[in-house]
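Lab notebook, bench 4. Still working through the backlog of constructs that have no structural model yet. Next entry is a single chain of 302 residues. Request: give me the structure tokens for it.
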Amino acid sequence: MQAYEHCSQVAKREAKNFYYAFLALPAHKRNAMCAMYAFMRRADDIADDETMSIEDRRGLMCRWTNAFHQGQHLSNDDDAVFTAVRDTQQRFGISDELLDELVAGTVMDLQEEPPEGVNRMEVSGRVFDVYATIESLDRYCYLVASVVGLVTIRIFGFKGEHADEHAIAMGKAFQYTNILRDVREDAERGRIYLPLDLLGQHGAVVEDVLEAATRHEPNAKLLAAMQALAARAESFYAADRSLIAAIEQDSRGAMRTLIDIYHALLHRIEHVHLQVFRKRVRVSTARKVGLLLRGMLLRSYT
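Model written out:
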């Protein structure tokens, strides 16, 4: 199907971490994951397109979601993504509700008023949206990442009553890793995901984040808060074995690869002592390929 081919090209071009895991999947599941990735990528691109005003982005997101739900034409590329996603939903039993939750997480940053649990603050003449508590951050992580996990295990196939719980935990682990990697970039865009209560527990404040983004060096208090968030991420990664055991055998290698790449990214961030303000921390291509080969071996021998 040409629609799936379009989605595969999007994933190959854009999915710097995910695509390596997709390669460890059987073809029909790989196509489905590429379709879902292309859908999520498009939603993220609309939300993050700073060439448009937030009002314009809200309008485009509304038209895009309506076109998906109502089967309307928007563009040839969007039509291809919608076609592949609808086919994936039918094949793997993925509800519209899950996709709506995914989009809800994406549009949280586009709301005219800050969502519940987010404080809009003026600091040094600039306006920032700052998460108030670790609980409000967890809710955000659920919508933008754990829902992805719930979709993923439906494509991979799973058994056991706790699989959803493990997928939710792993999604939070991934998103916490992203938050730690992107602290500087997010602050430059007016978003601070390090919650106020966590900062306060270590004597840090929002100004410390902004100073670190400018000077490319966190102070001891901010570093302690970030270390605490890294430790919380590590606690969620502890669900890895239980999640992999719940997945169908032909998909375990892909799940192992995906978890290993993200966990390696967190380890890399920790290895450089959370110096993410100096440069973007990455997992090397060679390391990703090595983890992919490990995942493929797991698929072969389980």
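Notes after review: The chain has two domains: 1-95, 113-302. The radius of gyration is 19 Å. Flag for follow-up if needed.
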